[in-house]
User: Which sequence fits this backbone?
């Protein structure tokens, strides 16, 4: 927080959203309850909010993307992973000039990343680094298309000020 306060600068803030699907509902109705399977007819929130901040100092832009899908598409790994949001962030930061990208997980409790098997044409849950990164790049591509010249984001005109206050609270 101290570092952020030291680097305050005037900025332009814009907002927009796009629709993109990288996952599906993970609950499939069955004869006896519900089973774990990709459900193409189940609920899935495609709404993807985008907030972009442009400023005169580095990073010159910050892009915050929200999406409602569990970032658990890597399968079973015994290590930390940025999953599809990491691939999305890398692509945005590579394709946009002097950019920092951030991800906000939406309310996607029943959503999991899927891919369509080329041989069977069936949807399967992503369970590898490759399928995870494909989903992240697909999400980034949709964001890049939306924030391009074809569909500019809507400027937000509100004034925002920030302050840092220090104090002691008694219990």
Assistant:
């Amino acid at each position: 927080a101290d570092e952020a306060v030291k680097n305050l600068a005037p900025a332009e803030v814009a907002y927009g959203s796009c629709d993109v699907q990288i996952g599906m509902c993970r609950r499939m109705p069955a004869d006896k309850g519900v089973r774990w399977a990709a459900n193409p007819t189940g609920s899935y929130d495609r709404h993807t909010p985008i907030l972009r901040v442009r400023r005169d100092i580095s990073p010159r832009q910050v892009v915050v993307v929200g999406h409602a899908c569990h970032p658990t598409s890597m399968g079973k790994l015994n290590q930390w992973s940025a999953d599809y949001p990491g691939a999305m962030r890398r692509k945005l930061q590579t394709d946009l000039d002097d950019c920092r990208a951030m991800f906000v997980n939406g309310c996607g409790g029943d959503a999991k990343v899927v891919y369509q098997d080329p041989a069977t044409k069936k949807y399967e849950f992503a369970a590898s680094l490759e399928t995870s990164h494909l989903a992240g790049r697909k999400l980034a591509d949709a964001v890049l298309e939306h924030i391009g010249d074809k569909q500019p984001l809507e400027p937000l005109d509100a004034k925002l000020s920030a302050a840092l206050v220090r104090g002691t609270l008694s219990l």
Q: What stands out?
A: The mean pLDDT is 89. The first helix runs from residue 2 to 6. The radius of gyration is 19 Å. Residues 22 and 138 are 7 Å apart (CA to CA).
